[in-house]
Amino acid sequence: MGGLSNAAYLFIVAVGLSLVFGALRVINMAHGSLYMIAAFVTVVVANRLGLALGFWVGLLAAVIVTGAVGVLIEIVVLRRVYREEHLIQLLGTYAVTLIVAGAVRIIFGSNYRTMSPPQLFSGSLSLAGYRYSVYSLFMIGAAIMIAVGVNLMLYRTALGRNIRAAVSDSELLSASGVNVARLFTTVFAIGAGLAALGGVIVAPSQAVGTSMDSDVLVLAFAISVIGGLGSIIGSAVGAVLVGEIYSFGLVNPYTNQFALAFVFIIMTAVLTIRPWGLFGRAEQ
């Protein structure tokens, strides 16, 4: 259950990363920064307003703030590097992570912050002789709902149809009359919103600090590589694999120092057999 709760928030972050790469073909190093911003906003708002209402107001505030920052990043930085090679995109978005990290330290400080789960999801439940945190079950349920929502958005809406068309051929989509620049901004804002939801959900379950952007980015990239960059199903499968393997490594006293190494061993094995990932496409 610990592995699944870790997989839950990692999936939410990784699916946003994969969605952005699939449509925009941009490897966004700033994705972890958006996740960190949302977590800090949630903690600050929740602790100010109290547990009864603070978490939900913090969720709304985090998504709005992070979405706005994401739109700003897309307009100011990414529009200038879409047609550049991936190295230029990496450098550009990595510069954004440094700027955001400095801004977060100035605004929120360098100390770790914590919050309790909302009252609705506090306590634990007894299932099959074991006790499980209600909030962990909420995290898993939220990830499933978000997965369903993203799938419905991609395959049941006009926006999703345009996103899938952009993945196949953005130039042909532009020729058909779709404003591709606006579509890309929308997709990046959705990706930022998903990163924000990951940050919101993880905030009550672990300490929020200024290093959490790089911590989650490493795992999110591992998930995307294992599952296949641009694949939503791959993000889900990769998140479960990484969440369980990483949790197993942490709880075992003989392997807790090498938990992250297990993740990269799996990633290396997948890359050796299928360089495009378990559910990716070879042309990627």
N-to-C CA distance: 33 Å
C-alpha Rg (nearest Å) = 19 Å
Number of helices: 10
Globular, elongated, flat, extended or rod-shaped: what is the shape?
globular
Structural class: mainly alpha
- Could you state the order of secondary-structure elements as H and E? HHHHEEHHHHHH
Tell me, rounded to a whole number, the average pLDDT: 89
Helical amount among residues, as a percent range?
over 70%
Which spans have pLDDT < 50 for at least 5 consecutive residues? none
Total count of strands: 2
The proportion of residues in beta strands is under 5%
Report on the architecture of this protein.
The radius of gyration is 19 Å and the shape is globular. It has 284 residues and is mainly alpha-helical. It is built from 10 helices and 2 strands. Helix 2 (31-49) packs antiparallel against helix 3, helix 8 crosses helix 9 (232-251) and helix 8 packs parallel to helix 10 (259-273). It has helices at 2-24, 31-49, 51-76, 86-108, 134-156, 158-175, 180-202, 212-227, 232-251, 259-273; strands spanning 124-127, 130-133. 73% of the residues lie in helices and 3% in strands. It has one domain (2-117, 173-273).
